[in-house]
Amino acid sequence: MPGLLLWARHLFLSAKNGIVNFFTRPIRRLLLPYLIRRATSKYPPLKGGYSAQRLTYGSVLKTRSTQWLSIEAKALEMVRKYTTIPVPRTLDYWQDSDGGHLIIEYIGDGELLQQVWKQLTHSQRRKVCRTLRDYVQQLRELVPRPSKESVSSPNDGAFIDFRISTEKMHGPFPTVADFHDWRLDQFVAFGQLHAPTALRLGQLRQMMNDTHPIVFTHGDISPWNVLVKVDGLEDEDITVVALLDWEQAGWRPRYWEAVKFMHGKHGEWEELGWEEIFGGYEQEMKIEDELLLISGPLLNT
């Protein structure tokens, strides 16, 4: 390898030790094609990492839509600055004709909760949920707030939410009431085909509470996005080392984190989450569950 490339590689790898400076970023971007080719043969695919790949010993590359990755980059910046929630350090973020590129710290000292859940004791599982409860509370108290409150991304713009769509961006919405109006508008077509459904949609809109405060929300707390370190069977032997994947994060009604946590979840994870973190939003959950049913089979006459 030429001397210049060795020197540049040394600068890049030094990022894992926190030495990220003015010189490292342009060199990293210049060497990106080489590093990707090298990483493909050197590192196995990341578990659950459909949009991420290991890049070096101490870094992970995400390449996606500029809108999506700008949300995650901003969320990581805010969470690291204003909370004690463990998240990867952002090493670099830039945009070009290929989209957005986000390079974050690789945290190797842990396993995905999804991979170890069955091996944990009930008490350890409960401890993880209590730790996540603290994280959710910190997010809800996160400052600074936007200059003008809105249901939006961390950048106060449009946001992505996989419960609503895996492709389109939504919002921003000036108020919770505007968000709820829009939410119901997504189901108008079903009401046009079936009068009882239209009536029920109107009833559901009246049941929605427009006074929920707007708080910062992760939007995808799942076993695939929680990294834990396990050293034994006692409570003190398990530690949450990172909360990952912040691309759905942003400012949402207070109950929305609960809706997203419960979406598609079953078993003890759901039960402990409801008991330890999200209890108290029964009506909001019933409304959201019914909306998803409306978008499937039509309501009976």
Strand order of the largest sheet: 1-2-4-3
Largest sheet: 4 strands, antiparallel
The number of distinct β-strands equals 11
Distance between the termini: 73 Å
Overall pLDDT: 88
Structural class: alpha+beta
Enumerate how many helices there are, as a single number: 12
Question: Oligomeric state of the chains?
Answer: single chain
Query: In the CATH hierarchy, what is the class of the largest domain?
Result: Alpha Beta
| Regions with little confidence, pLDDT below 50 for 5+ residues | 13-22, 297-301
The CATH level-2 architecture of the largest domain is identified as Alpha-Beta Complex
What does this entry look like structurally?
With 301 residues, the chain is α+β, with helices and mostly antiparallel strands. It has 2 domains: 3-105, Phosphorylase Kinase, domain 1 (2-Layer Sandwich), CATH 3.30.200; 111-294, Alpha-Beta Complex (Aminoglycoside 3'-phosphotransferase, Chain: A, domain 2), CATH 3.90.1200. Helices cover 43% and strands 18% of the residues. It is built from 12 helices and 11 strands. The strands form 4 sheets. The protein has a 4-stranded antiparallel β-sheet, with helices on both faces. It is globular and about 60 Å long. 33% of the residues are buried.
